[in-house]
Amino acid sequence: MKNILHFIKGNLAVGLLLFALFLGAGNIIFPPLLGQQAGDNITLAMIGFLITGVGLPLLAIVAVAKAGGDLQLLANRVSPTFGILFTSIVYLAIGPFFAIPRTGSVSYEIGIAPLLPEAMTDHWMPLFITSILFFVLILYLSINPSKLVDRVGKILTPVLLLIILLLAGKSFISPMGEPGEAVGKYITAPFAEGFVQGYLTMDVLAALVFGIVILQALRDMGVTDKKKQVNTTIFAGIVAAFGLAFVYISLSQIGNTSIQAIGTSDNGGNIIAKSAEVLFGNLGSLILSATILLACISTAVGLLTANAQFFHKLFPKISYKTFLIAFAIFSTAITNVGLSTIISASSPVLLIIYPLAIVLMILSLADQFFKGGQIVYILALIPTFLVSLYDGLKEMNIKITAYESLLKVLPLYEQSLGWLLPAIVGACIGFIIYKLQARFI
Fold it and tell me: How far apart are CA 403 and CA 405, in angstroms?
């Protein structure tokens, strides 16, 4: 028992670090929207959301930890070319193209804009200045990744948790009203819709990336034993999973009970901002601003650090600091296109790569049953990609009638989960071929 308590005490900061890295812009703004739109079907919708927002990221942390903390090594099981391409796309998606700019944009639109005079909110200058100051701070925190545990795990996260506890506690003690009626796909398929909405958090992709950040932090702390690194990373994943589940359930509860007090909205940021004001008055805006800023800072630090480390490893002639600065400047520019544009642009990409990431992760966890047989990975991922690619194209309003007619026969196609059956069938065929090869070769 003493050894267990000592392990928990010694590694809790690492778990809080991982939780803080996960808890960013999307994790704050999407659950309230789900809660409001799911209405009476909140339970099924939340279960689906928790699978993609908590359960699968935890499995991804385990998979990456066992693979040495490196997503590329995991993806190399398909092929070295796929390993480089897929890993680079994932890093860029949750890095300077979408996720990092989203943290800057959300920090402004929810954390800063509500505090500004109304005449200034539509002007470009406040966002521009805020984005520069934001990424200068992120650069400072990222420049020395060996201090991540102290700066984020031991300082930012406890403050962040305290603020979320205040919001969540008030919403449960004094709910703003009763749930409204479910809307859209939440009426007929709340579980599937919650599952797909979990993509927007980018948590599975982030989990595949944060493994290397955690392992680097452990090495900087003097933890060199590989078994201990894996165990500590898995423990950190469990801590982060419990934290994320609490936050998602709490924020969805706020959205679910908010309609009578603030009306409906298609923007989760507006829902949480107005709800905070109802729950805490003028103090609510300050509490929310602090929550958003702390969440976005910690996530941006983790993502920027992970991206710089990966691309420095890929291109060693370019220094870690050079990548940090380049990605920070690029992210600052993208931030200024606005939150709505960033979210709209990211949705098709996520619909394409998220299923691939899920299938790759699950196969890696079952790898012992086919000893890394390449054919299993290939035959599972190819049909997954053929379906998910079209889901992404549809999101961009690009339709191929003949191809869509073919895909429509797949179960759950209308819920953007049509890739599930082809992935399973492909993996099974690959496994049979692997067994036959093992028997006759």
Answer: 5
For residue range 337-396, list pLDDT tens digits in order. 988 888 889 999 999 999 999 999 999 989 888 888 899 999 999 999 999 999 999 999
Whole-number Å distance between alpha carbons of 332 and 100: 9
Sign of CA dihedral 69, 225, 309, 307: positive
Cβ atoms of 301 and 134 closer than 8 Å: no
Residue in the structure block whose two tokens are 């500590």? 232
Pair of tokens at residue 329: 């400047």
Confidence of residue 14 (pLDDT cuts 50, 70, 90): confident
Return the residue matching tokens 């409001």: 36
The answer on pLDDT for 149 being more than 80 is: no
Token pair in block for residue 149 = 């545990």
Residues, the chain: 441
Our measurement of the distance from residue 248's CA atom to the centroid of its chain's CA atoms, rounded to an integer in Å, reads: 12
What's at 201, amino acid-wise? T
Q: What percent of the chain has pLDDT over 70?
A: 93
Q: Among 124, 133, 138, which Cα is nearest to 337's?
A: 124
What is the rounded distance in angstroms from the CA atom of residue 286 to the CA atom of residue 281? 10
pLDDT tier, 267 (very low <50, low <70, confident <90, very high otherwise): confident
**Residue for token digits 């990966």?**
310
The C-alpha atoms of residue 268 and residue 339 are separated, in whole angstroms, by 12
DSSP state, residue 198: G
| Distance between CA atoms of residues 48 and 57, nearest Å | 13
Cα–Cα distance, 333 to 92 (Å, whole number): 15
Give Cβ neighbours of residue 65 (< 8 Å, ≥ 6 apart).
211, 214, 215, 229, 230, 233, 234, 237
C-alpha to C-alpha distance for 327 and 101, rounded to whole angstroms? 10
Helix axes 282-314, 99-106, angle to 10 degrees: 160
Alpha helices in 39-156 (DSSP H): 42-50, 56-66, 71-75, 80-92, 99-106, 124-142, 148
- Cβ-Cβ contacts under 8 Å for 178 (sequence gap 6 or more): 257, 260
